[in-house]
Design brief:
There is one protein chain. The chain is α/β, with parallel strands linked by helices. The protein contains 21 helices and 27 strands. The strands form seven sheets. Strands 1-2-3-4-6-9 form a six-stranded mixed β-sheet. β11 (388-392), α16 and β12 (433-437) form a beta-alpha-beta unit. α8 runs parallel beside α10 and α16 packs parallel to α19 (523-531). The two termini are 44 Å apart. Bound molecules: beta-D-glucopyranose (BGC). Beta-D-glucopyranose binds at residues 84, 102-103, 152, 199, 277-278, 409.
């Protein structure tokens, strides 16, 4: 059993395997043991891989370094069209086939009976690593039960451009929050015998011209903003790294030795598998020598071309050995040989979404919903006695579309609980009635709102992989719809189902706004609970919401989508990504990073900083001074001395707390040398600039409540 596999999870997994496949996973019979001595789980993964490699021909190894396209996989697995990637096994050497599926919001790619969880930007909005770990554990077990060995998640690309079509699919604009969230997901996923894949390495920050665009970014910014979440993922033991489409400083990421060798293997100490994004391999020799191990999904540049390169000596057999070793060691380490999933065809129709998974999906949706505005007395709804609620807008559950997931490879098909029936049922319990309009006719919607006690308008944007959003406005005339409804009824509540920031020209006219993101299949249950106060909106923004299209860190066409028809994206904003830019340039955002209201209020006091060598403990008291139980996310930012050349403040710690009214808790956050370090591109190392570091504790990046300092060294 690989280290770290949770006993309960594996026990449950093995049970399913035993009944579904009629085999007890991990039991290698005597004949197998004689033929394949590396099947003995008592040996270390690297010893097993070395033994196996010694028994392999070059062609055996080459066969492991490329996938076969899904159409072929379909025939060999006789399951359904459910694997987005497939590497054939080698039965004579006891090597199992490897199956790969997305991803970040649940096991997707057309799998049936899996849970559609809230999207990653929502996961990050919970600032709840324990819950994220539960999500990962559930995701990994669902993967295993569906016959999936490799989960293509998490995506940790930093939200540099709010219009990015995949903004919803990653963890927002801050490297620390992204890294912590990713580590929790990875630890959870890999408590099962599956491999997690952190992606897309690196700097895959836009969809416009995504296959070719060169992200031209300086080395310090790379190390301080774009790479740290990958480093944290490696520290969390991630099995695989997916290299990105596109180029970093004019070198394609999947053949870039500076990224794949110097940084990933050298600086981060990664020992696992590097696979290409789907179609992100651009060469044979350069890629093999540059650090790519596995071409996905087919054999365009590896396969016969790589065999030829080995035959001519253009690629050495040592390189092929190293590539195959990375794959095999990871498979041994993560239990792929010892805990084969159930026979794939037999689980094609199985529903593996358990009540426990469903409740993780629901809790994530509730905890990720960010309350952006709440005029006194608006939320939670306190109606009763036959009041009427007008529920308006497509995402409430009109038409064929749902707005619970983003589009593209991470999409998970599941039947979504729509808001309208959930709110109707909950209102009935309170003695209220619901009337509804799809919002296609703003006049009709306004008339309905006028004759109702309150109006709840659902609005959406449609983010999807493969294209960026044209701008930050809500599409399809929804601003006009909201304005019309707000004019008709001052008690208008807007629920946003968006994958990222949107503009809100109607903000002053509405009574309340919540950002519910793409909330996954428990959509309606979560928003009904929040509106009626059965649950609180627990989220905090993992990304700044700008006040206009222009007042953003990436505002020139050279920055995004890039000069020469999006060939060259200049990262001229450097370190000033997200709130770092707003702070430095003193630009007021619409809503700042880290922001989110609660149904109760909290006070912060008693800041103490304790030093032990190079480590620090920052402690303070958070008290619920409101009338309801609720949660808060106190955040710790560090403001470096001017000589360090850093943005005004950077997130270095946070903690989600839940408190009953009148109760307080002592929060202690750890800082280490890295919390105060800057990357020196000349010495290629982290160093602490001497000086005074300010410690800022607050309820958001723009709501600092406590201040202290630390002198370095
Ligand atoms: C995406 C990856 C995904 C892969 C397989 C690519 O287009 O960029 O994130 O894992 O497809 O679906």
């Amino acid at each position: 059993m690989p280290r770290g596999i949770g006993r309960a999870v594996v026990a449950a997994a093995l049970c399913v395997a035993a009944s579904a496949a009629g085999l007890l996973a991990g039991a290698a019979d005597a004949r197998t043991a004689a033929r394949c001595p590396w099947m003995s789980p008592t040996m270390q993964p690297n010893v097993r891989a070395a033994r196996l490699l010694a028994a392999m021909t070059v062609n055996d190894k080459l066969a492991l370094l490329t996938g076969v396209v899904p159409a072929t996989a379909l025939q060999v697995t006789d399951g359904g069209p459910v694997f987005v990637g497939y590497v054939p096994g080698n039965p004579s050497l006891c090597i199992p086939a490897l199956t790969l599926d997305d991803g970040p919001s649940g096991i997707g790619n057309g799998q049936l009976g899996t849970t559609a969880f809230p999207v990653p930007i929502a996961q990050a909005a919970t600032w709840d690593t324990a819950l994220e770990r539960s999500f990962g554990r559930a995701l990994g077990l669902e993967a295993w039960q569906k016959g999936v060995d490799v989960v293509l998640a998490p995506n940790v690309n930093i939200a540099r451009v709010p219009e990015n079509g995949r903004n919803f699919e990653a963890f927002g604009e801050d490297p620390f929050l992204s890294g912590q969230t990713a580590a929790a997901a990875i630890e959870g996923i890999q408590q099962n015998p599956v491999i997690a894949t952190v992606k897309h390495f690196a700097v895959n920050s836009q969809e416009t011209n995504r296959y070719y665009v060169s992200s031209n970014v300086d080395d310090r910014t790379l190390h301080e903003i774009y790479l740290p979440p990958f480093e944290t993922a490696v520290q969390a033991g991630v099995g695989a790294v997916m290299c990105a489409y596109g180029q970093v400083n004019a070198v394609f990421a999947c053949q870039d030795p500076a990224l794949l060798k110097t940084v990933l293997r050298g600086e981060f100490g990664f020992r696992g598998l590097v696979m290409s994004d789907w179609g992100a391999t651009w060469s044979t020799v350069q890629s093999a020598d540059g650090g790519l191990d596995l071409e996905m999904p087919g054999a365009k540049f590896f396969g016969p071309a790589l065999a030829n390169a080995v035959a001519t000596g253009a690629v050495t057999t040592e390189t092929i050995d190293r590539m195959a070793r990375h794959l095999l060691v990871t498979m041994f380490q993560r239990g792929i040989f010892d805990h084969p999933p159930p026979a794939r065809a037999s689980v094609y129709l199985a529903d593996v979404s358990t009540p426990a998974d469903q409740s993780v999906a629901l809790r994530l949706a509730e905890e990720s919903t960010v309350l952006l505005k709440n005029a006194p007395g608006t939320l939670p709804l306190r109606l009763g006695r036959g009041k009427s609620i007008a529920v308006i807008g497509a995402p409430a559950g009109f038409g064929d579309m749902t707005y619970a997931s983003g589009g593209g490879s991470s999409f998970v098909s599941a039947s979504v609980v729509a808001p309208l029936p959930a709110i109707t049922a909950r209102a009935a319990k309170a003695g209220d009635t619901v009337v509804s309009a799809d919002g296609s006719d703003a006049g009709a919607a306004a008339a309905l709102a006028r004759s109702s006690s309150v109006a709840v308008v659902f609005a959406y944007d449609q983010e999807r992989e493969g294209q960026d959003r044209p701008g930050l406005e809500l599409p399809a005339g929804q601003d006009q719809l909201i304005e019309a409804v707000a004019q008709a009824n001052p008690h208008t509540i807007v629920v946003l189902d968006t994958g990222g920031p949107v503009l809100m020209p109607w903000l002053d006219e509405v009574a309340a706004v919540t950002e519910a993101w793409y909330p996954g299949e428990r959509d309606g249950d979560a928003i009904a609970a929040i509106l009626f106060g059965d649950a609180e909106p627990g989220g905090r923004l993992p990304e700044t919401f700008p006040s206009s299209d222009a007042a953003v860190p990436v505002a020139t066409p050279d920055q995004w989508p890039g000069a020469n028809d999006a060939q060259d994206a200049s990262f001229s904003e450097g370190l000033d990504v997200g709130y770092r830019w707003y702070d430095k340039n003193k630009v007021a955002p619409l809503f700042p990073f880290g922001y989110g209201l609660s149904y109760t209020t909290f006070s912060y006091s008693h800041l103490h900083v304790h030093r032990t060598g190079s480590r620090f403990a920052v402690s303070f008291t958070v008290k619920n001074v409101g009338a309801r139980a609720g949660s808060d996310v106190p955040q710790l930012y560090v403001d470096d001395p001017a000589a360090a050349g850093e943005p005004p403040k950077q997130l270095k710690g946070y903690q989600r707390v839940f408190l009953r009214p009148g109760r307080s808790v002592l929060v202690t956050l750890a800082l280490n040398a890295r919390s105060f370090s800057q990357w020196n591109s000349t010495s290629r190392s982290w160093a602490v600039t001497p000086g005074l570091y300010r410690i800022l504790v607050g309820a958001s990046s723009r709501d600092i409540r406590l201040r202290g300092f630390i002198r370095q060294p």
